[in-house]
Amino acid sequence: MFNSLSDRLQGVFSGLRSKGRLTEGDIEGAMREIRLALLEADVNFKVVKSFVAAVKERALTAEVLDSLTPAQNVVKIVLDQLTGLLGGTGSGLVLTSRIPNVIMLVGLQGSGKTTAAAKLAYRLKQQGHSPLLVAADVYRPAAADQLESLGGDIGVPVFRGDGAHPVGIAQAAVREAIDGLRDVVIIDTAGRLHVDEEMMAEAGAIKEATRPDQVLMVVDAMTGQDVVNVAAAFAERVDFDGVVMAKMDGDARGGGALSIREVTGKPIKFVSEGEKPSSLEEFHPDRMAKRILGMGDVVTLIEKAQAVSDEEFSQAEAERMARAELTFDDFLTINRQVRKLGGIGSLLKALPGGEKALGAGQVDEGALDRMEVIIHSMTKAERTRPSLLNGSRRQRIATGAGVQVFEVNQLVKQFDETRRMMKKMQGPMGMQSGGKGKKGKKGKRSRGRGLRSLPGLGQFSAADLKGLEDMLK
Fold first, then answer.
1. Fewer CB near the last or first residue (10 Å), C or N of the chain?
2. At what angle do helices 391-401 and 405-424 cross, to 10 degrees?
3. b/e for 335-348, b at 16 or more Cβ within 10 A?
4. Domain segments of the chain: what residues?
């Protein structure tokens, strides 16, 4: 979403770095470019004015102008101001000791409330809670059916209350949660195509009847600056606690996301990128600011990696791995682990410059799919004993996988390079001899050691990927 803004800002910083020492004229020119970049990104003009003024004031100090690295200082100032603009510190979901906790979602029709409700339920379920979804939108056709379908996909029950008034449905759902020992109730309320009195009155009545612990407003990040006006109207009438920014993976300019915190005073609590239930993530202003400035977001990837469970290996497999006897089945395992982390795209977005490489088409995100197809076209013996892969076998594999022979040869070459690398290590895949992992647990396999050999990562150096590999251990 912020690709265009990110490119513009990085261009400004690149121009500053090329100048060495900076003058007041250089700073003035940079501030003008930053102002234009923010306005083109559809950021509220009042927000742009105060943001640029704050950056300019700090950038024109002697500490910056007389510095040996003034451009870096300007980048740091912009990063700090951008982080503050987005909220400064994270503001996650706050659950109380009340049973059940009630979470109410509000917003306009089409903003993504129903999908966000299901994603939030999935997130809470993964954290050990027992959520109950409530279909309180009785006006939009098939709204309850959609929520029930989403709930079925993630294994969360949905309370419908067909035929009842939305307030009655919400009240009955809370009683149902108490009887069914559900500790969180998520109410999906009705929306309209625009802010109107009827919608606000109903939302207020549901809030009064259920006294929710959290009221979250779901906004469509692709709506642009108009999101701010909608949020301001809801803040006045419903007094919500935070914002869920949906559809952050769209190609809109993203000005609403940059403006909403400053204008309404309400924090962004979650962002959603993608359609998968797991795509709802807690919002961290500092990490988003770094992404916008092209600095990557390794911390979020670390958290994703920690959430992916280690795969267990038998003692025989552990001993084989300790001898660096890598097989193509191990390549498939690495592939599965990368997919759990969101694929190569997610890995690269965490690297500085990774999003730019993806946007420029320099990364082949389908490479892992082709690798998997090629390996599955091998026999079990060929996957276990790669030395069997002579010319005729490679031709057969290429035909079966629907690829060219040179692609099979490339995969074999990558495999051989990975195996040679492992043999140079004291313990391949992070395991010491004897089958013990770095933490001393037998059969535990570390992630990431094969990353630099994966298709699609060829243009990144070993130094670029070292942080990821260490992180994924």
1. C
2. 110
3. bebbebbbebebbb
4. 3-85, 101-293, 307-471
Higher pLDDT, 50 or 297: 50
Least confident of 6-15, 125-134, 332-341: 332-341
Distance CA 300, CA 316 (A): 34
Q: Whole-number mean pLDDT of the chain?
A: 77
> Does 141 score more than 70 pLDDT?
yes
Burial of residue 197, with CB atoms counted within 10 A of its CB: 0-12 exposed, 13-18 middle, 19 or more buried: exposed
The top-scoring range by mean pLDDT among 42-56, 248-262, 302-316, 393-407 is 393-407
Q: How many residues does the chain have?
A: 473
Mean pLDDT of 243-248: 84
* The residue type at 176: E
Distance CA 15, CA 160 (A): 58
* AA identity, residue 419: R
Kindly report the CATH class assigned to 101-293. Answer: alpha beta
Q: Whole-angstrom Cα distance, residue 237 to residue 419? A: 63
Query: Residue 280: which H helix or E strand, with range?
Result: strand 280-282
Residue range 3-85 in CATH 3.30.700.20: no
Tokens of 95: 């659950």
CA distance 425 to 449: 10
Q: State which amino acid sits at residue 350.
A: A
For the four alpha carbons of 252, 256, 259 and 265, in that order, the dihedral sign comes to negative
Q: Where are the alpha helices (DSSP H) in 276-404?
A: 285-292, 298-307, 315-322, 328-340, 343-349, 354-359, 367-376, 380-384, 391-401
Q: Calculate helix-pair angle for 113-126, 143-154, nearest 10 degrees.
A: 20
Q: Which two tokens stand for residue 151?
A: 């709930």
> Distance between the two ends of the chain, CA-based, in angstroms?
31
Contacts of 149 (CB under 8 A, 6+ apart): none
What are the tokens at 458? 């060829």
Q: Which CATH superfamily is domain 307-471 in?
A: Signal recognition particle, SRP54 subunit, M-domain (1.10.260.30)
State both tokens at 301: 């990837």
Asked if pLDDT for residue 92 goes beyond 70, the answer is: yes
Token pair in block for residue 388: 């069997």
Pairing of strands 184-188, 158-159: unpaired
Mean per-residue pLDDT, 172-196: 89
- Taking phi over 0 as left and psi of -120 to 50 as alpha, with beta for the rest, 105 belongs to beta
Distance CA 452, CA 459 (A): 10
Dihedral of alpha carbons 3, 348, 269, 221, sign: positive
Q: Is the pLDDT at 441 greater than 60, yes or no?
A: no
Contact (CB, 8 A) for 357 and 391: no
